[in-house]
């Protein structure tokens, strides 16, 4: 556990750096004109709607869901990589079986067109 | 007390490197652009324009801090902070020199000897995507929102290939700690080829390199910022210090991935033929300089690629990530595992 304390300290140092730099900006910066300065930028036109009124493509969600599936598989590989020298051939074959199942799912997703953007 | 001082000194080294990487890289980037485009670039502030970044930093400090009327103020302030803190913290698990002996006590030149090493680094590095999503969502600007959804899809797509190539580099080592990765890569093959992961894992190295361009949103993967279509993408509305925090975060994550690439594939601080057994100050300095030189190669490559390649289309970007890099990364992992189990590596 002692090895993680420096990480915490480093995070605190980073936060301290942020606070100093943001406070410096608060002291020095220009007061601001207000008015249309605070409108969302839209190439000089007046915005007729807010960004939050709009929706974006469902495909972004699909990518996120696929990422979650494959990322869990990737995390599963880390302990295997660490134990690889002790698991030797048994570990190798086991992981090939695991990866084969993963690849079947990957081929299925590919064939269903989930990886296409059109 | 001694350990405390040692840890503090190691942190100070990393903080110095990290805080100077942004100004130096901005200068290199602008001079590099000028060189490639056959013009002069910044050359007025200081010798060769070296103090240009400092002048820019002071200018940004004095700029008005704008938050749009309908923005989510809390997330809007949190986003630039989240861009910097993880980028700064990733360095705690990267070693920058050999184990040295100071006043009769052993000191290892990495801040934290956590067993989770590389996994911790990946976890911290992937926190960066939250800052982009928060920034793009909270500003309530259409360009920002589009940049943010693009950024999230892009970064998570390429994170898979990145993580898989990191796993492959760890397989022959059998440890997540990056100092073990470096000591594994010491020595040579047949007396002249450095024992680096680069050679047996060249596919993994390429996958890592391409994925790190996508992870840092650099050209040819700069769709989240794409200035010709999205103004500035997720940070369109940011100004003043908050903008410069994003800027710093971006260059720091470039530095992180460059140093990680050097550590995983190019032997880190170690270079065959150099003597690391002498006085601890020389040993540590040599280690740090070798690591920085290797990382500088990658940073220069980032600049070179930026001013050479055009931007991808979004469908091309996803096709490259999911249909090319992911299978390549899996194939590389199988290859490395097969080589390791058969005793070649």
Can you describe what's shown?
The complex is a heterodimer of chains A (118) and B (345). By secondary structure, chain A is mostly helical. Chain A has one domain: Methane Monooxygenase Hydroxylase, Chain G, domain 1 (Up-down Bundle), CATH 1.20.58.1610. Chain A has helices at 5-28, 59-82, 84-111. The longest helix of chain A is centred in the C-terminal third of the chain and has 28 residues, at 84-111. Chain B has 345 residues and is mainly alpha-helical. Chain B has one domain. Chain B is built from twelve helices and four strands. Chain B is globular. The mean pLDDT of chain B is 85. Chains A and B meet through α1, α2 and α3 of A and α1, α2, α3, α6 and α10 of B.
Give a short summary of the structure:
Chain A is mainly α and 118 residues long.
Helical stretch count of chain A? 3
Derived from helix and strand composition plus strand pairing, the structural class of chain A reads mainly alpha
Radius of gyration of chain A, in Å, reads: 25 Å
- Low-confidence regions of chain B: none
Distance between the termini of chain B: 41 Å
State the total count of DSSP E strands of chain A. 0
Give the helix proportion of chain A (percent range): 55-70%
Most extensive chain interface and residues per partner: A-B, 69 and 77 residues
State the total count of DSSP E strands of chain B.
4
CATH homologous superfamily label of chain A: NADH:ubiquinone/plastoquinone oxidoreductase, chain 3
